[in-house]
Amino acid sequence: MKFSIVVAVDRNLGIGKDNNLPWRLPGDMKFFKSLTSNSAEGKRNAVIMGRKTWESLPPKSRPLPNRLNVVVSTQNSYELPEGCKLASSLSDALKICESELAIDQTFVIGGAELYKNSISDSSLDRLYLTEVYGSYDCDKFFPAYADRFKLISMSDTQFENGIEYSFKIFEPKS
């Protein structure tokens, strides 16, 4: 099953600090919601995330609406709300998404450990990367990717809350 990664990184590939985003970019959140929510008619998308990413979502946003939420955890008795699925690995999560009849696209949305497992998976089809032009105090990082991917699209530079960033789309090099 083909899937995509969605991530925002700073210049040092930082993605988070203390289980939170190190920046506040409503435009990036809007892009994320649109990308992961918009699906073919009669279908919905799936988002795969690690347990810590799930726990970092504001309680009012859990589960992410109009998407199948699949949470990867080694805690096989982890409690999730009805309609969410628990997986023990990326492979298990992809199988769950594949078994759902009406899934249009599947996105891995974090965190660091899941990104590390996803970045070299042969089923990875696209990398949607928001590049934040700055360095932030991060304790979680996205794996190095530049040598394995080619840039296929880039937005104009956005400016919000004193921060410059752009949206980039990459595909694996063949």
Uncertain stretches: none
CATH superfamily: Dihydrofolate Reductase, subunit A
Q: Determine the number of helices (DSSP H or I, runs of at least 4 residues).
A: 4
Helix content: 10-25%
Named CATH topology: Dihydrofolate Reductase, subunit A
Rounded mean pLDDT is 96
Instruction: Profile the largest sheet.
Output: 9 strands, mixed
Q: Ends: how far apart? A: 18 Å
Find the count of extended strands (DSSP E, 2+ residues): 11
CATH architecture: 3-Layer(aba) Sandwich
What does this molecule look like?
The protein is built from 4 helices and 11 strands. With 174 residues, the protein is an alpha/beta fold. The strands form 2 sheets. Strands 1, 3, 4, 5, 6, 7, 9, 10 and 11 form a 9-stranded mixed sheet that branches. It has one domain (3-172): Dihydrofolate Reductase, subunit A. The radius of gyration is 15 Å and the shape is globular. The chain has helices at residues 26-37, 51-56, 90-99, 112-118, and strands at 3-9, 14-16, 44-50, 67-72, 85-87, 103-108, 124-132, 140-141, 149-154, 158-160, 163-172. A hairpin with a 2-residue loop joins strand 10 and strand 11 (163-172). The two termini are 18 Å apart.
Brief overview:
The protein is of the alpha/beta class. Helices cover 20% and strands 36% of the residues.
Furnish the topology, listing elements before pairings:
Elements: E1 3-9, E2 14-16, H1 26-37, E3 44-50, H2 51-56, E4 67-72, E5 85-87, H3 90-99, E6 103-108, H4 112-118, E7 124-132, E8 140-141, E9 149-154, E10 158-160, E11 163-172
Parallel strand pairs: 1-6, 1-7, 3-4, 3-6, 4-5
Antiparallel strand pairs: 2-8, 7-11, 9-11, 10-11
